Amino acid sequence: MSNVRQLRDKQPENEKLTINLGFVDLGRIDLLVQEGFYSNRSDLIRTAIRNQLESHGAVVAKSLERHTMDLGLRDYSVADLEAVRDAGEVLHIKVVGLARFDPAISAELARETIGSITVLGALQASAEIKKALVDRIK
């Protein structure tokens, strides 16, 4: 008998992207890294993206409000979906960021309670839930 137990797998806190850059832009990035302005290429790219997003902050805020979208991390549990079902309601999920579904949620419960899912960012759900909702994920 072992006293070791499985801890919940750590979920990634970010998503990996691949971009194509011209050699001149890449060289200029490497020069800034070499000169100590940034710790590495990724640091410069993350900073540039954050600066662009900040410069468009008002537009993003208005769009979130207009589309009634949640911003950030949104977790859904079995209890959340059971409460929706018991209230006779259907969810129309709209998230900018990360939407996570508890692995204990059954495909049947998901189909009963979720009318549509729109995620701009990432969706973390079991393969069974994704398959059950394939016609409702936009």
TrEMBL record:
Biological source species: Flavimaricola marinus
Lineage: Bacteria, Pseudomonadati, Pseudomonadota, Alphaproteobacteria, Rhodobacterales
Pfam families, per the entry: RHH_8 (PF17723)
Name this polypeptide is given: Nickel-responsive regulator
UniProt-listed SUPFAM superfamilies: Ribbon-helix-helix
PANTHER family: BLL4998 PROTEIN (PTHR36215)
Gene Ontology annotations of biological process type: regulation of DNA-templated transcription
